[in-house]
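input
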Amino acid sequence: MILDVGCGSGIHLNYLSKKYPAVKELVGIDLSKEMIAIAESSSSGKSSAKYFVSGMDNLPFADDYFDLAFSFNSIHYSANLNVTLAEVKRVTKRGGFFTFQVVHPVFTLFVKKSKDYSKKENVGFPIQGGTLLVSHPSFTLDEHINAIVDNDWNLVSMKELYGRRSRIGEYFIPTLICFRLQK
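output
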């Protein structure tokens, strides 16, 4: 059983449903009713995925329910990383994995108004080809690592990722960071 935390339009679960039809249950949660409606519409008759409107800090699932949880570009919207990581751990089976990718904390420095890495502030990014502006809290690398440690996750790996926005003036910096954790 697989959980997509912050599933958005359901693109990842719809892909997994086609690629791995033997997976018993694919579940996506998102806080946006509109995104869940898009996910349900896009998967109708094509995917076995189920979608629920839910925040990531109070997941509507039993303890030790999922074998795998993942989140692509959503955990950085969390109001409290400790609460989010504790909640995902609660619903993940012992030995199960949680992989999440977020905007790299160093990259957020370049879009912060204060230009202060340690200062807490919301940062905005254009998405969907620049047609939408999204805003989320800025977390430092130590906030991510401490939330992982504080919740007794085993950090299996961490990878910095580079993309088309990695070149900022004379700097070449990672834009995303991916953590793989095990319960």
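quick obs: Residues 57 and 80 are 8 Å apart (CA to CA).
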